[in-house]
Specification:
By secondary structure, the chain is mainly α. It has helices spanning 5-17, 69-96, 106-122, 130-151, 158-178, 186-207, 214-236, 243-265, 270-289, 298-317, 329-354, 359-382, 388-405, 417-441, 448-473, 478-499, 509-521, 523-533. Helices cover 70% and strands 0% of the residues. Helix 14 (417-441) runs antiparallel to helix 15. The longest helix has 28 residues, at 69-96. The chain is globular, with a radius of gyration of 27 Å.
Length: 536
């Protein structure tokens, strides 16, 4: 049972008066000593917030009973954490309309809120904290990674930063109660190391085909092979050691890889650059997993500026009158002028990096490049004769320079169609399995109207997931994708409402938990598609 904030305040006042009253003998306890202790839990007052803008998490908290005071204190902080993250999710979604860089983080935020709610349910009948330590560790590591990514953004308002700070404090307090240190996902870190090792193996193969001497290829291959084996060795031992040990070993490896990566980048081979990009992506994921800001050096900016000038020059060589036939005459003139300006700005950036200009000056020059590129990109995509790989190459280098120079995207981040297709395919598969399970377990629901709402909601959600996947695969108009994504979100809200009340409507606990777990697994995909396609 949950108490109101007023009741909680009254209880605290009564406890404060207890020392002034004479001690009374404790009456013998009546009833069964094994019966759960009813410790009432409610969200703590939100600092600098009114009840109207706290979100709706408080009305969705599962009803639980705990068997000890330590379990009650932990559950109280977990409830406060859930309410805080739920409010943060709402704020982030509102700000994502104006700040596109927030959108990729929304799936993580939605998942953490769902996992926190599930963990609250796991606290029912909890007496000691040991059984909850392992499932909490997973939530802890996910939050720390999201917190790091959010704090790396500079466009968040005071309410978002306040929620992040409050959640960080609650997480630290729960860690102390459980007697554990800061958590990170060791299995994910091991997977990332193996992926990086595979990318290095591909890089070694491509070195044999690069336009360099056999002696240079042999030297680079030898050095790369040594680092690859060192990385594999670290992957095997990542399950052991403290957080500080893991960070130290990773930092040492990066220090050895960086000069080798620059030697490979100096070859300026398109295939080798793609391998380096993939390794860099894995490294950035590892930095976020370990809450370490990735280092930026002038050498990296220099290499990226050279690569950008080369990539834009290659694209300009293929920008012919024949390729521009797809554009109307007025747009052709605009594209020609903007393309010429873009190329000149890329040359200016390369010259500025060669003379070691300040980061501020480099950022100013790159902002102009980024603005022109985002303006031209849609026109280039319409030109069917231009290779898509050339556009992807420039997108990749621009993203590297944004991170290195701490520059926000001048407009919405380009939608990665391949990633959205993959997310939609996964969502359709999960929705199909969930719909089949709903049909199977709906017979337990004691109300015909509730049964119909659940069955129809599941079927409707599956239909929209399948339709959105089809539209993304066929490259439908963006407006059409937005409308279908909006329908998907509406059906998701209806389905979620029914899924959360399964046990209350008669579904056995084990069956309800299985359906709710399948529902939670879809949260990241729903959030990813909604963040990318819905502009509200």
């Amino acid at each position: 049972m949950f108490r109101t904030i007023a009741e909680a305040q009254l209880e605290r006042e009564q406890r404060n008066r207890l020392p002034t009253q004479p001690a009374q003998p404790v009456p013998p306890r009546q009833g069964n000593p094994n019966q759960p202790t009813n410790v009432e839990i409610a969200p703590s007052p939100f600092p600098n917030r009114t009840e109207a803008n706290r979100g709706n998490a408080a009305t969705q908290i599962p009803r639980i009973n705990v068997r000890s005071r330590e379990a009650a204190d932990f559950a109280q902080e977990l409830v406060d954490f859930y309410v805080t993250v739920d409010r943060l999710v709402i704020d982030l979604r509102e700000h994502s309309v104006r700040t596109p860089s927030i959108r990729p983080l929304l799936p993580q935020a939605y998942r953490i809120a769902a996992d926190a709610r599930t963990l609250i349910q796991s606290c029912d009948n909890l007496a000691a904290l040991q059984p909850i330590a392992l499932p909490y560790s997973e939530l802890d590591s996910r939050w720390r990674q999201l917190s790091f990514n959010l704090r790396s953004l500079d466009q968040l308002d005071s309410e978002c930063t306040s929620s992040i700070r409050r959640a960080d404090q609650l997480v630290a307090s729960m860690e102390r109660r459980l007697g554990i240190g800061p958590q990170f996902d060791r299995s994910q870190l091991r997977d990332l190391m193996i992926v990086a090792s595979t990318c290095m193996e591909t890089l070694i193969d491509d070195l044999q085909l690069a336009a360099i001497s056999s002696r240079d290829a042999e030297t680079l291959t030898h050095d790369c092979r040594l680092l690859q084996q060192k990385l594999l060795s670290q992957a095997q031992s990542v399950a052991e050691g403290s957080y500080e040990d893991v960070v130290s070993r990773f930092t040492e490896f990066v220090g050895q890889w960086s000069p080798l990566g620059r030697r490979v980048a100096a070859i300026n081979d398109r295939h080798l650059n793609r391998r380096l990009d993939r390794i860099r992506d894995v490294a950035n994921q590892t930095y976020a997993l370990l809450w370490i800001p990735p280092p930026t050096s002038a050498v990296d900016v220099r290499a990226a500026s050279v690569r950008l000038e080369s990539s834009v020059s290659n694209l300009m060589d293929q920008l012919t009158l024949r390729s521009m036939v797809a554009l109307n005459p007025s747009e052709q003139i605009h594209v020609m002028e903007a393309s010429r300006r873009l190329y000149e700005q890329c040359r200016q950036l390369e010259t500025a990096t060669a003379r070691n200009a300040s980061i501020r000056d480099l950022a100013t020059t790159f902002k102009k490049i980024d603005s022109d590129w985002n303006t031209l990109r849609a026109s280039y995509i319409q030109m069917r004769t231009l290779p898509n790989s050339a556009i992807v190459e420039i997108d990749s280098v621009c993203e590297q320079l944004r991170q290195a120079l701490n520059v926000s995207a001048s407009s919405g981040t380009p939608v990665d169609l391949a990633t959205l297709v993959q997310a939609a395919a996964s969502l359709e598969g999960h929705a199909e399995y969930l719909d089949a399970d709903v049909q199977r377990f709906s017979r337990y629901i004691n109300s015909q109207s509730r049964r119909n709402l659940l069955v129809d909601g599941s079927k409707d959600f599956y239909i929209h997931a399948k339709r959105l996947h089809s539209q993304l695969t066929s490259r439908a108009d963006f407006g059409e994708l937005q409308r279908e994504a909006s329908h998907l979100m509406d059906s998701w809200q209806q389905l979620s409402s029914e899924i959360n009340n399964l046990q209350r409507n008669g579904v056995p606990q084990r069956s309800a938990e299985m359906l709710q777990r399948a529902h939670r697994e879809m949260v990241p995909f729903v959030a990813q598609l909604g963040a990318a396609l819905i502009q509200r």
